[in-house]
Amino acid sequence: MRDFVYESPTRIVFGRGKELQTGQEIAARGASKVLLHYGSGSIKAIGLYDRVVKSLKESGIPFVELGGAVPNPRLSLVHEAIDLCRREKVDFILAVGGGSVIDSAKAVAVGVPYDGDVWDFFDKGVVPKEALPVGAILTLSATGSETSPASVITKEEGWLKHALHSDLIRPAFAILNPELTTTLPPYQTAAGGVDIMAHLMERYFTNTTAVDLTNRLIEGTLQTVIKFLPIALKEPDNYDARAEIMWASTIAHNGILDTGRVGDWASHRIEHEIGAIYDVAHGAGLAVVFPAWMKFVYRHDIPRFVRFFHRVWGLEPDFWNPEATVLKGISVMEDYFRSLGMPVTLEELGVPDDRLEEMAEKTNWNGPVGQFVPITSDKALEILKLCK
Ligand code: NZQ
Ligand code: ZN
């Protein structure tokens, strides 16, 4: 196990109706004016907007608002929001939505106090020194952005999708009400679930040894997600299933499962390039890329893959032919993704195969990706070809 420092400063407020505490949470942090940031309207359709506004008004918190954060959120809206915050002297950003809204809010938070272009943090390795505080009300269990130190933004010019990592952008609080996810279209529930699984698997496939505790925590969290996703799809109003999945989304990506180990993340980097160009749902892209990545790298550590498919997916290991166990496991996982209504090929994802080289090149804009097996752009191309 490696040495580590672990700190997860986000206050979690979990349960039914907790969005009604939003005003209190913000007031406790001494904010004087809030930017209420959201997406394309689902929060109004589900009545959440009205409840949040009521809570802000009851706590006497002035706010301005900006909707329009789209899936694979765009830099141009971040710029617009930064201008608005400066004009209106906003000192707290409230994100109400899924990962895209929260990521957009985090980018705004580092952009407001910065003299240069906020894209510098995503593209040039400039390290942010300050940020406005962010609060999140989560409506989609998926990315873990509600507690993560990451923001992923797409620059329209050149369709570049890059991430910023900084502890400064971990939200101050996250309101997690599983009821808010009952209105999700099945495709988004499933894509969100695959994203949670991918965050767990990115961490599981590591070269770090002697990490039994985190191995088992990851295996257990995966089993919970695998069990409850089909239930949530069959019974969208099942609170307990939604609650298990929502808490798993946070646990999977708040850093606790990184402690003492180094994760991989090549599949994410490859998927981000698909999302940047074709605007696919992130989790759906991962359902295609992750099995292909596994097919490409499993020989690097066959025992780890056998253990994974045995402990998480219940496969009996074939001791005479461990490779066969791995290949069987990958196909069981693909069948599971299909059963959720997820694609497992680029064609099923609606992505043509004429820009694979470009996507593979872009994965390496900052050097090879992946810690378990370093993936250069030629290897990324092989993986993308395995997605067919
Ligand atoms: O735009 P609105 O109206 O909000 O509708 C959204 C959107 O169309 C809708 N939706 C959300 N909650 C709903 C709802 N519809 C009905 N009822 C609800 N309760 O769902 C659609 C997708 O939302 P989005 O926020 O895009 O999805 P997700 O949460 O999967 O976020 C994906 C983005 O997060 C990034 C991804 O790359 C992608 O850009 N990620 C961020 C991470 C992080 N910051 O730590 C880590 C992840 O690995 C990921 O890369
Ligand atoms: Zn993800």
Descriptive report:
The protein has about 400 residues and is α/β, with parallel strands linked by helices. The protein folds into two domains: about 10-180, Rossmann fold, CATH 3.40.50.1970; about 185-385, Dehydroquinate synthase-like - alpha domain (Dehydroquinate synthase-like, alpha domain), CATH 1.20.1090. The protein is built from 16 helices and eight strands. The protein has helices spanning about 20-25, 40-45, 50-60, 75-90, 100-110, 120-125, 185-205, 210-235, 240-255, 265-280, 280-295, 300-310, 320-340, 345-350, 355-365, 375-385; strands at about 10-15, 35-40, 65, 90-95, 135-140, 150-155, 160-165, 175. The strands form two sheets. Strands 1-8-5-4-2-3 form a six-stranded parallel sheet. A two-stranded antiparallel ribbon has the order 6-7. Strand 6 and strand 7 form a beta hairpin. Helix 7 packs parallel to helix 9 (about 240-255) and helix 7 runs parallel beside helix 11. 5,6-dihydroxy-NADP binds near residues 253 and 272. GO terms for molecular function: alcohol dehydrogenase (NADP+) activity; butanol dehydrogenase (NAD+) activity; metal ion binding; methylglyoxal reductase (NADPH) (acetol producing) activity.
